[in-house]
Amino acid sequence: MGRRRKGDAVSGWINLDKPRGLGSTSAVGRVRRAFNAQKAGHAGTLDPLADGILPIALGEATKTVAFLMDADKTYRFTVRWGVETATFDEEGAVTAESEVRPTREAIESALGLFVGEIDQIPPAYSAVKVDGARAYDLAREGIAVDLTPRKVTIHDARLIAAPDADHAIVEIECGKGTYVRALVRDLAEALGTRAHVSELRRTRVGPFDEATAIALDSLEDLCHRGAPLEALLPVETALDDIPELAVTAEDAFRLTQGRSIVLLPRQVETLRAQRTRTVSACHGGKIVALCEMRAGRLDPTRVFHLT
């Protein structure tokens, strides 16, 4: 007989507004304890020095985390001109300085150079693996490594404000794998100066944005008052770009058993028109399974057990 999992079988997403100074793993732990959830995970690490959107999956929602890992993100950050640090944020020691302070016009022009698909070398202090070791561990040991440039996509980059000569507030919309600290490093180089990130906030991860976010203290207060479900978003929240297909109770049962179901010709045509083979099968307003359409059938790839 299998060992019973500790905690409650709660499932859904929390759109957490993570506070600065707290690591992503610690944030997940606090949310999990607040809900007494059996299982929890997050979609996309957010550095302790950054704040903002950290989607946290509970229970069956953890099966949809992979769909958020590739989601576009939006960041708003403050650049501190004239001072470069080892980590390209406020945590590292100062490594170089410059008297150059770029004008607003120069910043706006230079930002355009980084829109589109670009090659970006990750910062030395990053989680990139080098021969099995994390780059930041090697950097802390004083070991210099050559990191390979990676293709990343920045959809938009705009100057929000330039409050004084030493600072600029920038917002970007980007694809997965983009390092803000590396962007600031390269932006400073293009402008003939040095810089680092003094403040960083993530404002969106796929469908999760500031409009539905909840602060950690507010969430813990809700749970303490016995109203945690007020902050819980549906499991399907992470699947906003995957078409839904309503299925019968009989077909829903087959899918939960890991068996395929046959589609009607009109269903096949509808799904083909949406140019995707991945389908979210639902019954009674709840997701039953994520499926792949093959030869007029739906094959379940992830099965959900929601009560």
The percentage of residues in β strands lies in 35-45%
Q: Which class do the helix and strand fractions yield? A: alpha+beta
Task: Specify the CATH class of the largest domain.
Answer: Alpha Beta
Distance between the termini: 22 Å
The CATH architecture designation of the largest domain is 2-Layer Sandwich
User: In sequence order, what are the helices and strands, one letter per element?
Assistant: EHEEHEEEHEEEHEEHEEEHEHEHEEE
Write down the overall mean pLDDT: 90
Q: In CATH terms, what is the fold-level topology of the largest domain?
A: Pseudouridine synthase
Radius of gyration: 23 Å
Number of domains: 3
Residue windows where pLDDT falls under 50 for at least 5 positions: none
Shape label? globular
Q: In percent, how helical is the residue content?
A: 10-25%
Number of helices: 8
Largest sheet: 10 strands, mixed
Question: Can you describe what's shown?
Answer:
By secondary structure, the protein is an alpha+beta fold. It folds into 3 domains: 12-70 and 207-238, Pseudouridine synthase (2-Layer Sandwich), CATH 3.30.2350.10; 85-183, Pseudouridine synthase (2-Layer Sandwich); 244-303, Roll (Archaeosine Trna-guanine Transglycosylase, Chain: A, domain 4), CATH 2.30.130. Helices cover 22% and strands 35% of the residues. It contains 8 helices and 19 strands. The strands form 4 sheets. Strands 1, 2, 3, 4, 7, 10, 11, 12, 13 and 14 form a 10-stranded mixed beta sheet that branches. A 5-stranded mixed beta sheet has the order 15-17-18-19-16. It has a two-stranded antiparallel ribbon with strand order 5-6. Helix 1 (24-35) runs parallel beside helix 6 (216-224). The longest helix is centred in the first third of the chain and has 12 residues, at 24-35. It starts with 11 loop residues before the first strand and ends with a strand.
